[in-house]
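subagent[fold] <- orchestrator: predict structure for attached chain, return tokens only, no commentary.
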Amino acid sequence: MKCMPREIPRAEVDQGITQRDQFNTDEFPIAETLVREPHQNSLDGKSKSATGPVRTRIRLVEPLASNAAYWKALLEPLRPHLEASRLDLGGIDLAMPRILLIEDFGTTGLIGAYDDKDDLNFSDFWRRFGLSHKKGGAGGRWGLGKLVFTSASAIGTLFGLTIRDSDPSGQRLLMGQAILNNHKIGKTDYAPHVFFAVPDTDGFQLPERNEATIQDFVSAAGISRTNEPGLSIAVICLRDDLEPVKLLPHVITNYFFPILTDRLVVEIDDKIINNVNFDELAKAHGGLGLADGSLIQFIRRVETARKSTPACELMESWAKTDVASALQEAQVAQLRTAYQAGELVCVRAPIDLRRKSGANESTYVDVFIQKTPEFATGQALFVRGSITIPGEARSFRGRKSFAALLASDTTIVEFLGDSENPAHTRWVGSADKLKTNWIAPGDKVAAIKR
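subagent[fold] -> orchestrator:
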């Protein structure tokens, strides 16, 4: 495995990497998106043969002098490209990198061809940028997610070790990539993406498959994976402001829903976050929204209730009018009485969607609402599949209500996924992917949000 920069032909148009800012904003900083992106991918990639929840492990690996020669040999060829990309290398020793490991277990790993391009996620992860073949219930759509990992690296570099659950041999595949800026060394122009790979006869980048070489990397990087399917990401030269302890609150505030519903278990350093101990950790690290435990209890009630079909379903006219007029008077009275009594109220809202292919699809969202205890402040959860959409929740104005909008049916998950911004924090009715795949989608998105 060696550093493989790519020259840009003289006739080629230069394309800069301008999307990093979408993953590091005042509203959603890099520490939060660094948690959201890998866990979304892990939940998307759960193996059908795996039992129990998806498990992830986040750990900081401090550099050791005994590994300095290894890292220097591997990373020094990247130095001229880092310098030409105008990165600040002050205080960075390529022989002594701090490494953030993010590993998942119980997932499929990066499936698909590793020696050619296809439409599966090995190619999507390593060989595409701004394009993705995810669809259906999958969370990501933009093909920009790995920018989160390289943005967390002071040298824009990550490595990935994967074992695929579809491979009975359990072969390990290792590859690396730096995402820099367009840059020039001498008279030669170079593309932003620099691979760490094994060159094929035509220069195509292949993953490292030699077991001895892979084991050297595993030992130096501190990877814990042995023979379990999944993906291990190593962020090289982690930025100083991204210690794992700073990621812990974002795990709790962004992934409480799959954790509380026993779909996800997260290990950060010496702390394990699961359905059993979540309440305790939320009090310490979840902020005001989760500390008093009332929202957590609401989520637990919602999870119990969603296993049954809601007793109340809106008439299909709800999307064009309002909720109250899409119910019979007796239903409205019954719901209001239950709500005032502090009971959990659940309503199903059917939605008819039409694809550009002409196919009509019937789907739905479920809405839950309950009065808060007197000491609590109202909050809302917007959940698509297993991921929360925090930008939508922040517009909720029910100060004395807990509410949850759950989009779990495959069709509505796909539809709303097409409406999301790259960081998956908002639903945008005018999104290009939405207009490409669906007929008149904007009004449906607005109605769901409303």
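orchestrator: received. Logging for downstream: The first helix runs from residue 30 to 44. DSSP finds 16 helices and 18 strands in the chain.
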